[in-house]
């Protein structure tokens, strides 16, 4: 598969060149170099609009999913085509990422190309090639060292499913394009500048809201509510699909490593058992060996059990990140930035642009590493639970455990009770009464000052000892929350004032601002009105000129009409003659500025 990855660059470059030559440039620059030989052909193709693509979102997402195995190959740093020193490893991974991108660029190029008939044929052929090579790899090397007969299938079935979907989509695209080419079906119009959901969002803003809102179900209020006026861009869908598949592959790889470690521990446990047998269980190391065996058995069992909760936690994070993206975008559209730290109210433009390129890759990496860290923390918690409650009961020491647990709960309850008692005493004796019966709480005005000062003096020494426990609890809660939320790129785990040290959160904020500035429905609707009005004015002018030419009885070409209008403008504004654009291109900006200021033009 690695060898085919290298050789796949040849057909990939061929497909890219074919689609680039078919693509027509919208604005052709008149220069004196040799690029005029290409006329208005050959334009660099765009694999995916990372900002404003809302159509074929799942097709792009499946195309991202087809790259999952190669992404994991790079993630494991298995890409080693050259023997280079360790300090240059970053350059090798950069080359590997570019190679993977080039080998899978035809999928995206064929999906986004305007020439549906040619792109569907090329995309189907390229997808079929990858599908056939993957099937051949699975049939020739089905066995594995860890999972047995179907290990290769376990790793590659998501990629096969994505390639099969792409084959079906390109076949559907070919049939539809062929019907259009033969005239059996009308061709769909060009991509609209204003998407339907954006127009609906603006309509909802202009519509009067009803006095009584509709009642929402428990699922809508607690989990998710579908919004017809909002759509996730293709970048978010592709990132989520690829993150799901990469998470699955990462869990499989981790389970394979667990099987390898378990086999090694079984061998080590067998040696310990043979030692105990030789010593007839009477040696001085017998108690220690039994505890080591028990620890290994507990750890193996807890590690397997915690795979499910750790994976479900990361899966829920992927869905929750999508919900937070929609919530944050709507707040930015409404002009609300209070949910952001103060330092991120005006982020750097360059960092925001780079954040678009960083976000998708970083989100996947955060999910994978977050799963591993969460799994380790949950396993440690499971081992503590086994040694704290389960094993003492198995060893007939349950009463001692219950006694210690009761004492600990009683101690914590007394400490919390004393803290609550301090608050009650302060509320009852050291605050002045409410100024109005409708007030929710008493005003912050001291009462009984002498008793208050004695109260503070005697509790000063006790609160020193209480602060030690509060400090340790702060550290414990910070560690738990930090490790639990490590996979959440949309939420910083840094303290207030240090949010800029969280590079993942900075990428999230920059990505939000770029999407906000380029896909805001109100802004897009405004630009749509300007473009539509401009087109209507040009159409009206063309109709007027058409009536003029028909009344004269002679057919006038568009070029002659334009030259006539230029001559009339130059006669009315003689100063523009000296500032006309020359072949070298100088004077064009001054010409435009004076043209805009001349009333007779």
UniProtKB/TrEMBL annotation:
- Compartment list: Cell membrane
Q: How does it sit in the membrane?
A: Multi-pass membrane protein
Query: Is the keyword Transmembrane in the record?
Result: yes
Nucleotidyltransferase found in the keyword field: no
Q: Which GO terms describe its biological process?
A: vitamin A import into cell
Gene Ontology molecular functions: retinol transmembrane transporter activity; signaling receptor activity
| Superkingdom field | Eukaryota
Q: Which GO CC annotations does the UniProt entry carry?
A: plasma membrane
InterPro entries referenced in this protein's UniProt entry, alphabetically: STRA6-like
What keywords appear on the UniProt entry? Cell membrane, Membrane, Receptor, Transmembrane, Transmembrane helix, Transport
Q: Which residues cross the membrane?
A: 6-22, 58-75, 87-109, 121-139, 154-175, 241-261, 302-325, 366-387, 407-431, 459-487
Question: Where is the major localization of this protein?
Answer: membrane
Query: What's the protein called, per UniProt?
Result: Stimulated by retinoic acid gene 6 protein-like
Q: Which organism is it from?
A: Rhinolophus ferrumequinum (Greater horseshoe bat)
């Amino acid at each position: 598969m690695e060898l085919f990855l290298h050789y796949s660059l040849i057909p990939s470059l061929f497909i890219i060149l074919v689609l680039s030559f078919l693509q027509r440039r919208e604005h052709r620059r008149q220069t004196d170099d040799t690029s005029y030989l290409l006329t208005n052909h050959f334009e660099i193709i765009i694999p995916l609009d990372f900002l404003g693509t809302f159509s074929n979102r799942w097709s792009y997402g499946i195309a991202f999913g087809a790259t999952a195995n190669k992404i994991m190959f790079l993630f494991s740093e298995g890409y080693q085509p050259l023997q280079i020193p360790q300090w240059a490893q970053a350059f090798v991974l950069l080359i590997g990422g570019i190679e993977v991108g080039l080998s899978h660029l035809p999928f995206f190029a064929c999906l986004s190309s305007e020439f549906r008939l040619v792109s569907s044929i090329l995309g189907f052929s390229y997808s079929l090639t990858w599908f056939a090579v993957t099937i051949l790899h699975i049939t020739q090397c089905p066995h594995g060292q860890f999972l047995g007969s179907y290990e290769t299938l376990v790793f590659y079935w998501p990629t096969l499913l994505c390639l099969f979907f792409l084959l079906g989509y390109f076949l559907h695209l070919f049939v539809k394009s062929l019907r259009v080419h033969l005239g059996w079906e009308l061709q769909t119009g060009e991509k609209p500048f204003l998407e339907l959901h954006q127009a609906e969002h603006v309509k909802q803003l202009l519509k009067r809201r009803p006095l009584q809102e509709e009642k929402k179900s428990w699922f809508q209020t607690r989990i998710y509510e579908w919004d017809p006026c909002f759509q996730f861009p293709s970048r978010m869908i592709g990132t989520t699909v690829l993150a799901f598949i990469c998470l699955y592959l990462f869990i499989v790889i981790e389970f394979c490593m667990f099987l390898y470690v378990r086999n090694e521990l079984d061998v080590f446990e067998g040696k310990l058992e043979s030692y105990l047998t030789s010593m007839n269980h009477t040696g001085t190391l017998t108690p220690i060996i039994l505890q080591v065996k028990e620890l290994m058995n507990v750890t193996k069992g807890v590690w397997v059990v915690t795979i499910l909760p750790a994976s479900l936690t990361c899966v829920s994070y992927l869905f929750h990140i999508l919900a937070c993206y929609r919530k944050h975008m709507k707040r930015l559209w409404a002009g609300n930035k209070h949910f952001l730290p103060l330092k991120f109210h005006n982020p750097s433009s360059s960092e925001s642009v780079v954040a678009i390129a960083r976000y998708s890759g970083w989100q996947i990496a955060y999910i994978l590493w977050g799963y591993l860290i969460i799994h380790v923390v949950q396993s440690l918690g499971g081992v503590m639970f086994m040694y704290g409650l389960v094993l003492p009961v198995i060893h007939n020491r349950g009463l001692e455990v219950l006694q210690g647990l009761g004492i600990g709960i009683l101690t914590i309850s007394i400490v919390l009770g004393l803290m609550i008692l301090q608050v009650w005493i302060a509320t009852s004796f050291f605050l002045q009464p409410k100024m109005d019966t409708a007030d929710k709480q008493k005003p912050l005005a001291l009462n009984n000052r002498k008793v208050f000062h004695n109260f503070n003096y005697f509790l000063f020494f006790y609160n020193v000892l209480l602060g030690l426990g509060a400090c340790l609890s702060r550290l414990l809660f910070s560690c738990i929350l930090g490790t639990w939320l490590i996979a959440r790129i949309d939420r910083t785990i840094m303290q207030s004032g240090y949010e800029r040290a969280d590079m993942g959160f900075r990428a999230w904020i920059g990505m939000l601002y770029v999407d906000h500035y380029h896909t805001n429905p109100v802004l897009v609707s405004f630009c749509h009105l300007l473009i539509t009005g401009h087109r209507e004015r040009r159409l009206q002018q063309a109709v007027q000129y058409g009536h003029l030419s028909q009344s004269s009885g002679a057919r006038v070409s568009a070029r002659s009409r334009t030259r006539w209008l230029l001559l009339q403008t130059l006669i009315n504004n003689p100063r523009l003659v000296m500032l006309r654009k020359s072949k070298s291109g100088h004077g064009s900006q001054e010409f435009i500025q004076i043209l805009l200021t001349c009333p007779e033009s």
